[in-house]
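Researcher: If only I could read backbone structure tokens as easily as an amino acid sequence. Walk me, if you will, through where the backbone shape changes along the chain. I have put the entry right below:
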Amino acid sequence: MTFHSHILQLWCDDPRLRREAILERMLTRVAASRKLGADEAADFLTRLSVQLDTVPVTVDDLRRYAHHSGETPLPF
């Protein structure tokens, strides 16, 4: 199968799952770049929250999610 300039957009009607997707994506980003600071993380979380139409996700939300997920403490 060959794809030529196609975009596929999936949408989930469950805001809780969209919020969890934001947190998971951010944890992946933090793990990939230990240089990421709290301000940059907050900006990214704000953009994702708007894009996925959820209540704002904060750095504190991310810290709690990381803790409950058994992740190592965040570097910020």
User: Anything to note?
Assistant: The chain has three helices and no strands. The radius of gyration is 14 Å.
